[in-house]
Design brief:
By secondary structure, the protein is an alpha/beta fold. The protein folds into three domains: 215 residues, FAD/NAD(P)-binding domain (3-Layer(bba) Sandwich); 133 residues, D-Amino Acid Oxidase, subunit A, domain 2 (D-Amino Acid Oxidase, Chain A, domain 2); 105 residues, Glutaredoxin (3-Layer(aba) Sandwich), CATH 3.40.30.120. 29% of the residues lie in helices and 27% in strands. The strands form six sheets. Strands 1, 2, 9, 10, 11, 12, 18 and 19 form an eight-stranded mixed β-sheet that branches. Strands 7-6-14-15-16-13-17-20 form an eight-stranded mixed β-sheet, sandwiched between helices. β1, α1 and β2 form a beta-alpha-beta unit. α1 packs parallel to α8 and α8 runs antiparallel to α9.
């Protein structure tokens, strides 16, 4: 048996695990990822990428790659246009009784693409089959070690780290891996979560489902109309239809596992169900792949046990309505990566790691509930449910943290009902266009692998103190007086957007969230900043 040592072991090579490898590499932390499947997924699951997730991908240098490989989302009200260009897809969810009656479909959800006041980026539509290779390749380029076709067997943890055994499925060779920390991104059933005895809370199993990748000439029926998802409310065979590429589609439907085993859903049986649901009894259909899966609604009761952290579906799972699941997993590990880096590099204590669960578990719970309500609403409608739904963009990008790593108020809920990105601690920094060294940048682009202190024009002493404190405590910190020096504010928007006076200051964490805000100065800059970092970093 071979031995291997690594700072962080990642189990699971889906979007969450691959993102963890990427973000850790971005923070200068080596990782080793193992995944039992032979390669990345071939099904277009988890296609919607929120503006917040796009911000993270942009900061990792992947914005252009994602845009080049994905169709462009356009306004949902354009779905009625026939012969839509192949590189465009209207951002709309529909419901109809049959595909033949698509022109009379009801709009169930039409998220806005107008997020320019909130984010420098818009939502994108890039299926998991396209995004996973992008994440994998960039993580490897940055130094992450990734082994597919490798089975995670077992692990033990002690006060200093985690010891695990993995097996190369091609050769049978085993490796003993010693890591300081482990990220469990091993999916809904998560053997790691189960072995740790971490329970889950939620509505449980929603239903057993089957996804079918198939080829059929539906364009002649829908006349080139396009949409991100269409619910087919055919009482005889309800299902959901999603475009895969220009010739293929993905159809999903529920079945009762008490009376039907997955293997009984043969290609011919799936064809019969699809023809009924589509309302096209004679349409030729070529099935290329079937994949059974379970839809459920559960959130782990804890996101951490010792040196093991749960992320993605291992931590939270819910119906796909709203496209929150994969985005949540990616944002989980982005939150965790900078904290692990801080501890591993010695400029934070392990106390900081407690804030991962403090911040992400309430988000996972709130988002799962919103997904549950959206799923119910899409199937049955109802004014009460509609009133309870929070705007999709707010759920995806407007959430807030309450933790020991934020010096701010204790908000009553993790997701507000309206956007409130106004510089308050616990929220992502408000998006304002600035100029850095003559280049146009968003405030969202500033904090990537370090803290950033932004001050008004009259608070230059705070920027100077920040440089001194950074040297004294060894924390990565950049400081800018916004509007002077290299960081220009051409429209004088920043202090107003951030709720500051000209002598105020805003401290951004390496994930772009506001960790502390001084609305107007008065205290001693050096001692105040030392106290702020001591509380956030647990030092």
């Amino acid at each position: 048996m071979r031995d291997r040592e690594v700072p962080v072991l990642i189990v699971g090579g889906g979007l969450t695990g691959l993102s963890a490898a990427l973000f850790l590499s971005q923070q200068g932390v080596a990782s080793y990822l193992v995944e039992r499947h032979q390669t990345t997924t071939v099904l277009t699951r988890a296609s919607g990428i929120s503006p917040r997730t796009m911000e993270l991908l942009r900061n990792a240098g992947l914005e252009k790659t994602v845009m080049d490989r994905a169709p462009k989302l356009v306004a949902g009200d354009r779905w009625q246009e026939t012969d839509q260009p192949a590189d465009q897809i209207p951002w709309v969810v529909l419901r109809t009784n049959s595909i033949a009656d698509i022109k009379n479909a009801v709009i169930v959800e039409e998220p806005s693409l107008d997020v320019g006041q909130v984010s420098p980026l818009t939502p994108h539509w890039c299926g998991q089959d396209r995004l996973e290779p992008i994440l994998r390749d960039e993580a490897v380029r940055r130094g992450a070690q990734i082994d597919f076709n490798t089975q995670f067997e077992s692990f033990e943890q002690d006060e200093n780290g985690v010891s695990a055994v993995v097996t190369d499925r091609a050769t049978g060779e085993q490796t003993r891996v010693r890591a300081q920390y482990m990220i469990a991104a091993d999916g809904v059933r998560s053997p790691i979560r189960e072995s740790l005895g971490i329970g889950r809370t939620g509505n449980g199993l929603v239903g057993a489902a089957m996804s079918v990748l198939f080829k059929a000439d539906l364009n002649s029926i829908i006349q080139g109309r396009r949409f991100v998802l269409c619910y087919l409310a055919n009482p005889a065979a309800p299902g959901a239809l999603q475009l895969f590429d220009e010739e293929r589609w993905v159809f999903g439907f529920f079945y009762d596992p008490r009376s039907t085993a997955p293997e009984e859903l043969t290609e011919q049986k799936c064809i019969e169900i699809m023809r009924t649901s589509l309302g096209e009894p004679d349409i030729p259909i070529e099935v290329q792949m079937t994949m059974p899966w379970e839809m459920s609604h559960n959130v782990a009761d804890a996101y951490r046990n010792g040196r093991v952290f749960l992320a993605g579906d291992a931590a939270h799972v819910h119906p796909p309505a709203g496209a929150f699941g994969a985005n949540g997993g990616i944002q989980d590990v982005h939150n965790l990566a900078w904290k692990l880096a801080a501890v591993l590099k010695g400029w934070a204590s392990e106390v900081l790691l407690a804030s991962y669960e403090q911040e992400r578990l309430p988000i996972g719970t709130a988002v799962a509930q919103q997904a549950w309500m959206r799923h119910t609403f899409r199937l049955d409608g109802g004014d009460d449910l509609r009133a309870a739904l929070i705007n999709t963009e707010v759920v995806a990008s407007g959430y807030r943290y309450v933790s020991d790593a934020v010096l701010g108020p204790a908000y009553p809920t993790a997701v507000p009902h309206e956007f409130d990105l106004t510089g308050k601690p616990g929220y992502r920094v408000p998006h304002v266009w600035l100029e850095l060294g003559g280049q146009r940048v968003s405030t969202v682009d500033l904090a990537i692998d370090s803290f950033v202190l932004l001050t008004g024009r009259a608070a230059g002493s705070w920027a100077a103190a920040a440089e001194q404190v950074a040297t004294e405590i060894g924390v990565p910190l950049l400081a800018y007086v916004v509007g002077t020096g290299p960081l220009a504010d051409p429209n004088d928007d920043f202090v107003t957007a951030a709720g500051l006076a000209d002598d105020g200051a805003l401290l951004l964490r390496p994930d772009g969230f506001v960790g502390w805000r001084l609305e107007a100065t008065g205290a001693d800059p050096r001692s105040t900043l030392r106290g702020v970092f001591a509380r956030i970093l647990g030092i």
